[in-house]
Amino acid sequence: MSLKIGDQVPNFTQASTAGPLSLYEWAGDRWVVLFSHPRDFTPVCTTELGAVAALLPEFARRNVAVVGLSVDSIDSHLRWAEDIAETQGQALNFPLIADDDRRVATLLDLIHPEASDTTTVRTVLVIDPARRLRLTLTYPASTGRNFAEILRTIDSLQLTDAHKVATPADWRPGGDVIIVPSVDDATARTLFPDGWTEVKPYLRTVRQPA
After folding, report:
1. pLDDT per residue as tens digits for the range 118-174
2. What positions carry a catalytic annotation?
3. Spelled out in words, what is the top-level CATH class assigned to the domain 13-145?
4. Rounded to whole angstroms, how far apart are CA atoms 127 and 107?
5. Tens-place pLDDT, residues 105-114
6. 208, 177 in Cβ contact below 8 A?
């Protein structure tokens, strides 16, 4: 299957460093960030796992559960975790799925034959509590992922789910946002009683709702 934004992400149960992991049950009412790795003991991915482990409180503050995936065994994952703790100064503190049978990678369309017919690409999936795919990012093997940007996009998704706004280019939490075009001015006056700035009739900026 080929997952697209808005699609229901299928459930699965697979071995992980935290024991058998059933995606839906494990996630509960949380958002999920699932990020895949081509194999264990790769240098860029080693730094990424350490970076995410350090950021885990930031993900938790946003009600986000994090899980990694690599196409090697549990034993390999546990040996890799020792290297991560040693080289990154941060122990692995979230599950790492053992996908040595490629079942989850195939289910989530994480194997791209033009890149490799046996290993997963380096993809990030952001999944909401309704199990819908909300964001997908795929990186080349040579470029480490920017997890601050992933946190920023989650902030945007959660804000825009709660209010009838969108976030502009280079938005950061606390910055002005855009009233979505489907909200007419009469409705906007109720939603945003302090007013807004009309750049164009279709481009109305307003302070970020609390």
Report:
1. 556 889 999 999 999 999 999 988 999 999 999 999 999 999 999 999 999 999 999
2. 45
3. alpha beta
4. 15
5. 999 988 865 5
6. yes
pLDDT at 184 over 70: yes
Q: What is the DSSP letter of 161?
A: H
Quick: pLDDT tens for 12-27. Answer: 999 999 999 999 999 9
Token output for 144: 């480490």
Q: Given strand 133-139, what is the order of strands in its sheet?
A: 96-98, 64-70, 31-37, 122-127, 133-139
Q: What is the DSSP string of 76-126?
A: HHHHHHHHHHHHHS----S-EEE-TT-HHHHHTT---TTT-SSS--EEEEE
Classify domain 163-206 at the CATH topology level. Antioxidant, Horf6; Chain A, domain 2 (3.30.1020)
Domain ranges of the chain: 13-145, 163-206
Percent of residues, the chain, with pLDDT higher than 90: 90
CA angle 24, 29, 31 (to 5 degrees): 85
Hey, how many other C-beta atoms are within 10 angstroms of the C-beta on 16? 20
**Residue 57: its H or E element:** helix 43-61
Distance CA 178, CA 150 (A): 20
* Residue 72 token pair: 């090697």
